[in-house]
Amino acid sequence: MKIALLGYGRMGKEIEKIAISRGHEIVIRKDVDDDIEISLADVAIDFSVPTSAFKNISNCLNNNVPVISGTTGWLDNYKEAVALCTEKKGAFIYASNFSLGVNIFFELNKQLAKMMQTIEGYTISMEEIHHTLKLDAPSGTAITLAEGIIENSSKNNWELAEKTSEENIAIVAKRIPDVPGTHTVWYASEVDTIEIKHTAHSRKGFALGAVIAAEWIVNKTGVFSMKDVLNIR
Ligand SMILES: NC(=O)C1=CN([C@@H]2O[C@H](COP(=O)(O)OP(=O)(O)OC[C@H]3O[C@@H](n4cnc5c(N)ncnc54)[C@H](O)[C@@H]3O)[C@@H](O)[C@H]2O)C=CC1
Ligand SMILES: O=C(O)C1=N[C@H](C(=O)O)C[C@H](O)C1
User: Fold this and answer.
1) ipTM of the complex
2) 139 labelled ligand-binding
3) By CB distance 3.0 to 4.6 Å, which of 48, 105, 139, 192 could disulfide with 7?
4) To test ligand 1's pocket by mutation, which of 6, 48, 133 has the most ligand atoms within 8 angstroms of CB?
5) Is 72 annotated as a binding residue?
6) Model pTM greater than 0.90?
7) Is 59 helix (H, G, I), strand (E, B) or coil?
8) Which residues are involved in binding NADP(+) (predicted)?
């Protein structure tokens, strides 16, 4: 496949290595807000910055190029991207986290929230740890985890805070040099703590998932998720 990389930073470079090792060709490497001939590509993979993701995605959809986006922090425009994809009969996937492990963790998190729904005495809280160059907080993955809990509990929202309230799940965001991404969910009671945790050891898992999603989406029409790609039920 001919792949356009929209964003050629840490993730763009990691994706390039994996894409080439799987027999693909990189035909575009876009790393600033310039004009590119996106139609040269069979598929585009956007790992850019929150302020550019929606424009990059729109450009792909307007030119009938399937697009995968892993950029976080731009979701105020997500519904617009979905509407454009539907209007243009295009193909689009956004995932806050493309790694297989995190997508399993998302399901585990929802199951645990369901089980805890009727159990009294536990307070939920969350933490995400990332490298110091990360632009957004909380992480997209932490937001997806919080949404999974909200769907399956009496909580209505999440907030960046130390302590969970009646309404909101507290998320603590820590920034430590070189950490690729660690997410923890706790249910603490007076007598014990239940903890589920995902630790990324490198960016390889995110990059591999993004390339697998790009291979999967070509010749499809619609808005999909990593659950579709990985066939998680
Ligand atoms: N969904 C997932 O699995 C993952 C998502 N991410 C997210 O992906 C994004 C990128 O992460 P990194 O590669 O670590 O960041 P990075 O800062 O290393 O790379 C982003 C690149 O985008 C470039 N850029 C700026 N304006 C652009 C434009 N208009 N078009 C194309 N590129 C442009 C920047 O010059 C920079 O090199 C972040 O939002 C991050 O949160 C990161 C890892 C995994
Ligand atoms: O910026 C990162 O590095 C990461 N961003 C994603 C997020 O915001 O959840 C995914 C991963 O945790 C790494």
Assistant:
1) 0.99
2) no
3) 48
4) 48
5) yes
6) yes
7) helix
8) 30
